[in-house]
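Troubleshooting log. The previous structure file for this entry was overwritten by mistake, so regenerating from the original sequence record. Sequence copied from the archived sheet and checked twice against the printout by T.R.
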Amino acid sequence: MEKILRISVQDGPTKRPAVIRKYNENMGGVDLCDQMLSFYKMSSRTKNWTTCVIGHFFDVAITNSWIQYKSDSKVLNRPAKDTQQYLDFKLHMAEELMNNTYLDHSSSEDSEEEYEPPVKKRIPQPEPYVRKYGAMHMPEMVDCKHAKRCRNMGCKNKTYMRCTKCKMFLYITKKRNCFLDYHR
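Regenerated output below.
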């Protein structure tokens, strides 16, 4: 290795390969994109790799758009003060994407009204006179896959116990008796 190094030094300066010359002429775009990406990266609290990769691709697309916008501004002889800075460009793009809807309602000719997602069926609370009426209310253990939320006001516990009359799921333990509170 020393012999090769000595030979190249003795021969004088070596010529730059054409590939290196071409790279140096056109290196501004990639380096500028990497530099701008390091300033304002999209952040997320997840360590999920797919979310991180998608966020990075959005960052690269926005950064390349800004670089193209800046070069177009130079071609159009737009003054530098009228050309948006990178962060302003990114924020403006985000606002536009949030404000604009790209749904084409003309393509769906069969329905004129807006789409409404299906509403989850919820059993309505019974009238107060039914709730508080006598000895007809009895708790029963329901065999269902997942426990249901207690329907007593202020209780967020889950239970398998249901009133036979009201059909409301109500939490019952030694410390808390929502069944009794609900029917008083």
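Residues 3 and 171 are 87 Å apart (CA to CA). Archived copy saved in two places this time.
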